[in-house]
Amino acid sequence: MRTVVMGAGRSGLAAARFLAAQDRPVVLTDSRPDPGPVLELDLAQAGIPGVWGDHPLALLEDCAELVISPGIPRATPFVREALERGIPVIGEVELAHRRIRERSDGSRVLAVTGTNGKSTTTDLTAHLLRASGIPAIACGNLGTPVIEAVASAAPGSVFVIELSSYQLESTLAFHAEGAAFLNLTPDHLARHGDMETYRRTKLRVFEGQTGENLRVVPVAHPEWWQDAPGNGRVARFGWSECEAWCDPAGAMTLLGESILHRSELRIPGGHNVENALAACLLAAHGGASIAALREGLCTYPGLAHRIAFCGERGGVRAYNDSKGTNVDATLTAIRALPGPLVLLLGGTDKGASYEPLREALAGKLRRLVFLGQAIPQLVRDLGDMPHEVVPAFDEATAAALGLAQAGDQVLLSPACASFDQFDNFEQRGDRFEALVRTWSRS
């Protein structure tokens, strides 16, 4: 019996390579017409056969398990056929979790989900644990597949895993010693259909938890999580008194003990105060000391592509928030900066209205620059506001930088996916930063 891995993206390739290294029969299938010479050679050397251009049902014969990449819906005909045949369908995260538990070396799992803030909270949690001398690896949707992290991790590591709703769809026995559900706003509705299905998918992060485990949730929105599965102990975070909170004066408190003032954080914005509070709860549950939490919070620089300062000229400062791939993420970025703003919006439209940006931009907008495939939707929702339409990314960036005046911020926070002009949001953000560097030196 063999394992079929569907999807030759980073997650699928990591799963296939892991299985081949375990001497388990595996075949990789992908809809692209061919792998290209480099990948073809790499797969051949690893002993991984590939089927390209289609997913023939014959692959399901003699198939013990199907491992699907996060971007592949379970409603895909090939996946649906596997389920109808009783073949287990999992994702790379479930495969990695299985391996973590097989290690039996004291390794633990901390998981983070939510619509926004997942990557920062995941990375910050690992940073706080390392500040306390605990081996910790940030992985998952953040970038490094969990199975890759497991393969190179020291015994007794803490795996801090960012989990998207797509990844949570394909978990079975996964459970985390500590898990955080950060927030919930409309996203991925084209896949999930409605907000309730999206919410229930996110709540799967708590499945399998026992009373010894920790459930980190926002104090302001109990309706998001009160019917969550599992039996983890609840720890809340937010802006009113609870297990981890920030008072109106900016003092951050964890479990009744003062940590630091929010002004000491290097990452800007109220949303990052919330991320830091959630990360502190997870890290403390993972063994981090209060002293290490204080040190780690003061030294954490933030992630690339998340409201990252990337250049200045003539009093104009540019910020890369390419990770702002939905409206709520862009709202967060707008609120984190004082303005006036020249805001770059656009890319691949995700189906949500851009109207909510209107109120946040009131009093701080210099100009909008619409780009990419989402231009018609942006014009429909925000076309009465001061704007320029510049479809191509490089030209749109040049236009935004040229429109800004001394004291302004140029912000790339597109509220859209990047796939119309780039492979991913990182590539888009890197291109923006390269253009800003050239501009700042000219």
Q: Using the alpha-carbon principal axes, give the shape.
A: globular
Strand arrangement within the widest β-sheet reads 7-8-6-9-10-11-12-13-14
Radius of gyration: 22 Å
**Largest sheet at a glance?**
9 strands, mixed
Helix content: 25-40%
Question: For the terminal residues, how far apart are their CA atoms?
Answer: 61 Å
**Mean pLDDT reading:** 95
Task: Summarize this structure briefly.
The chain is of the alpha/beta class and 442 residues long.
Question: Could you explain the architecture of this structure?
Answer:
- The protein is α/β, with parallel strands linked by helices.
- It has 16 helices and 20 strands.
- It has helices at residues 10-21, 37-46, 77-84, 92-103, 118-131, 146-152, 165-168, 189-192, 195-203, 270-285, 290-299, 327-336, 357-361, 375-382, 393-403, 425-441; strands spanning 2-6, 26-30, 50-52, 63-68, 89-91, 108-113, 136-140, 158-162, 178-181, 214-218, 233-238, 244-246, 251-254, 257-261, 308-313, 316-320, 341-346, 365-371, 387-389, 409-412.
- The longest helix is centred in the C-terminal third of the chain and has 17 residues, at 425-441.
- The protein starts with a strand and ends with a helix.
Topology overview:
Layout: E1 2-6, H1 10-21, E2 26-30, H2 37-46, E3 50-52, E4 63-68, H3 77-84, E5 89-91, H4 92-103, E6 108-113, H5 118-131, E7 136-140, H6 146-152, E8 158-162, H7 165-168, E9 178-181, H8 189-192, H9 195-203, E10 214-218, E11 233-238, E12 244-246, E13 251-254, E14 257-261, H10 270-285, H11 290-299, E15 308-313, E16 316-320, H12 327-336, E17 341-346, H13 357-361, E18 365-371, H14 375-382, E19 387-389, H15 393-403, E20 409-412, H16 425-441
Parallel strand pairs: 1-2, 1-4, 2-3, 4-5, 6-8, 6-9, 7-8, 9-10, 10-11, 11-12, 16-20, 17-18, 17-20, 18-19
Antiparallel strand pairs: 12-13, 13-14, 15-16
Helix pairs in contact: 1-6, 4-6, 5-10, 5-11, 15-16
